[in-house]
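Margin note: ligand = heme C.
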Amino acid sequence: MKDTLRASVWLVIALITIAGPGAISVDETRARGADGQDSTSTVYRSPTAVVVSPNGKTLYVTDRTAGRLVILDAAGKKKRGEIALRGKPQGAALSADGGTLYVAEHGAGSVAVIDSAKGEVASRISVGRWPAAVAVAHKTGRLYVSNRDNHTVSVIDLNQTPAKPIKQIEVIREPVCAAVAPDERHVVVANQLAHGVGTDPKLAAEVSIIDTAALAQSATVKLPPGSTIVQSVCVSPDGKWAYAVHGLGRFNLPITQLERGWVNTYALSVIDIGQGTRRATVLLDDLSQGAADPHSVVCSKDGRRLWISHTGVHEISMIDIGLVHELLDGKVPEDLAALKDGTRANIWVRIAQDPSHTAELENHLTALYIAGAIRRASSGGDGPRGIALSPDEKTLFVANYFSGTVAVLDAADGKLQGSISLGPQPEPDAVRRGEFIFHDAASHAFQRWHSCATCHANEGHVDGLRWDFLVDGIGNAKDTMPLVNLHKTEPMTRRGLFASSHERTRKGLESTNGLVPTKQDAEDLYAYLTSLRPVPSPHLTPEGKLTKAALRGKLLFEGKAACADCHVGPVFTDNEMYNVGTASGHYQEKDGLYDTPSLLEAYRTAPYLHDGRALTVKEVFTKHDKQGMHGETNALTEQELNDLVEYLLSL
Ligand code: HEC
Ligand code: HEC
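Resulting structure:
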C-alpha cells in the first residue's frame, strides 16, 4: 500500500519534471508523506538540515515531520518542489558537482541517492537503521554515514555502481555527525551522548577520529566532564582542527545552581586532529544568558569564522575562531590585555603567561565575550537546527524547525534578510505546542539555561548523565530517566516521589527550569510527553521480530530468572518499589527502595540503575547484584545471561 502511494508520487514528480524544466512540483493537496499520511493540513513542516547547491541557487532541505526533501529557490526565496522520502529524513550532503544528493532516511535504514537534475530518487544505499548524517569525501569517492542505532559509521564506495557499502566502523555512542578532513585521511565523528557509568565524576561524551586508510577508529578525544549532546562537528580548511559543539553539564554539583546558571552550559571544543587531543573548550554562554542546545556548526573557507545554531534559544552565534586560536597561542591584543578580571589579569593574559590556565576556559562564562570573539543574533525563526553558508559566504541559511522556514541571514552580522517557507504550516495543536515548550529554553527556563531536551535528549530520552535534584536531599544524584510512557509508570522518579505524571511534568517546568508555568503550558507539555511512543529496538530482526537468542531470553525473563515478578505488563513494571540490593548508602535512602523502572527501550537508556552505576544491562544483574536480590540470575549459565541481555535490548 505504502509503496503504491510512493510510486504515485514518483509518477507525479516524473510527469511534472518532463512537463517543464526545473518545474519540480508536487500538488500540495495530493502529496503523501513517507508514512502514507495525507500531507494536507495535519502535517507540520519541520526543516532539519539544509544544503546549498554549488552555484548557490538551490537549497535542499530535509523535513523531518513531513518526511520530505524540499527544494527551494534561494534567490527567488520560494519553494520549487518536494520529494517524498522514507523514515524521518535528517542529514544531507551533495556530490562536488551538485548532481547527486545523499539524504539520511532515519528509521528506514537507507540513504536516498537523489538525482538533483531530475529531482527523483535514483537509488538507495542500505546503512544502519537510524542514519543521522552523511558526509561526502569527494576525492576518494566515499560516503560516510553516522548510524545512531548500532553506534557505527558506514563507509560507502561511491566509485562503484551501484555504490557499495565497504564497512561499518565502530565508534562510541549514537554518532550524529561526521566531518571529512580536506585530505580525506581522517573523519571526525560526534558521538552524541555521554558514555560511561554515572558514578564516574569524569563522565563525558567523546569525539571519534577515524583513520580512513585503516578503516578504523584511530583516536578518541574525551570532552570535559559533563559533556553530552554533542550534535555537530566541522573541520578547519587546513585540516588541523575539528570544532565540536555540545552541552557541558555541571552534573557533579547539586542543581541549586540554576539561579546562577551553571547547571547546564554550552561549549565549543577545539580538537587537534593530528594529535588526537583536545586543545581547549570554550563556553558559548554569557553570564546570565545560556546559549542552550547548540545544534550545528559550520566553518568559513578561510578558517577564521564559525557559525553555530542554538536550537533552545532560537539564535545563531558567530565566532571569530581565528582570534580564539591567536588567544590560545598567547597572542593577546593590547586593548584586551588591559582588561582586568577584578584585580587580576584576565583569563587570556593568564593563559599567555601560563598555558596551563587554558583548562579554566571550561568554567569561564565571559572569556569569548570579553575578547569580542562571539556575537549572537536571532535565528529568524523558532528552533534552528541545520545551517549552511552560501558559496560566497555572504549568506547563512538556517533551518528553523518549528517555524517551518529557512531563514536567510547576513552571515557577517546575522541580520535577517528574508525567509522561505517549506509549505503551509498548520496551527500548532497541544502536542506540537508541547514539543516546542519541551525544546525551548528562551521563554521556558530561567535565564535560558536549558530546555527539557537538554537532559531528556532525542524526544524525551536521556543525556547519559546523572543529576542531584534537591527534592530527595543532596549527595544522591539520579540517572536521567526517559519520559516515553511516563503516564504508565507512575509513581514518578526513581524514589517514587510524585504520585502523578501530570504533576511531575508541571514540576519539571517549576523546579528544574525555574519558572512558574501557565496552566496552558503545563497541559501542552503533558500532551506532548504522553504522545511519545517507544521506537522499535534496532536489535529486533528487520521484520520486527525477536531474534532466536532474544526468544530464549524471553523464556528466562518470564520463567526461572523471575524478572517478570516485577517487570511485568506492556511497559515492564508493576509500578511498585523494591529493594533489589542497590541501596546507595545515602541517609535518605537507607531502605534501598527504588521504583521498578520500565524496561522499554533499555537498548538506548544507558547507564542503568538509579545512580547510573551500571554501564550495561548485563552489569545490572552480574556486577551489581552480588547479593542475588535482583531476580534469579545466580544459577544462569553465561549463555543464558547473554540470551537475557539480548531480550532486554530488544524491548
Ligand atoms: C538537568 C537535567 C534535567 C532537565 C533540564 C530536566 N530533567 Fe527531567 N529528569 C532528570 C532526572 C535526572 C530525572 C530523574 C530524577 C529522579 O529520579 O529523582 C528526571 C525525571 C523526570 C521525570 C520523571 C520520569 C519518571 O518516569 O519517573 C519527568 C516527568 C521529567 N523528568 C520531566 C521533565 C520535564 C518536563 C522537563 C522540562 C521542563 C525536565 N524533566 C527537565 C533530569 C532533567
Ligand atoms: C523484586 C522486583 C524486581 C525483580 C524480580 C527484578 N527487578 Fe529489575 N529492577 C527492579 C528495581 C526496583 C529496579 C531499580 C533499581 C535501582 O534503580 O537501583 C530495577 C532495575 C532494573 C534494570 C535497570 C533499568 C534502568 O533503566 O535503570 C534492569 C535492566 C532490570 N531491572 C532488569 C531485570 C532483570 C533482567 C530481572 C530478572 C533477572 C529483574 N530486573 C528482576 C525490580 C525488580
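The first strand starts at residue 47 and ends at 52.
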